[in-house]
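Worked example 2:
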Amino acid sequence: MLSNDVFRRLRYALDLRNQETAKLCALGGLQVLEAEIQSYLLRDDEEGFDVCSPEVLTAFLDGLIIHLRGERERKPGQPAPARVVANNNNQILRKLRIAFNLQDDGMLALLELGGFNISKPELSALFRKENHRHYRECGDQVLRYFIVGLTKQRRPEVSSEEDERG
C-alpha cells in the first residue's frame, strides 16, 4: 500500500487536521510543513501531489505512539532504540498495534469490524520476524480492512452515515 494511502486513511480515521498531523510528525522526530502534509493527502493524479516517503510515515506513526502511550522510558545511560522505518505493511501494522496498545483479540476485533476475518495464528504470522518460517507478508487488503475497522471504532458517526449512503 502506498504510504500516501496509509497516511490519508489514518489521518481521516483519527480525525486529524494538518496542524495536528505536523505535530505528530515532529513528535516522531521529523519536521514536516503543513503544505507538505496537504500535498501527501492529494490523489496521485491531482496537481501538487507529492509522494509520502516511508520516513515521513514512520515519523507520523512514531509520533502517534508517543502521543497515545507516552515516551518510552529508558534506564540511565541506555542508548535510544534503533528507529524502525515503516517501509512495509507488516511494520505499519506493528506500529499501529503498539500505538493503540492492542492485543490479539483487539486486532481481530478491528479486522472483523472492517469486514475481514482472520485466525489468531494467521495474525501472529504477520508479526513474526521476516526470516521466521511462519512469517507472512501483510497484504494491502489486510491493512485496509484494519484501518477501516479503526475508522469505524474511532468515528462511528461517520461510518454509519457512509453505510446508510452505501
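Residues 3-69 form one domain. The chain has a mean pLDDT of 91.
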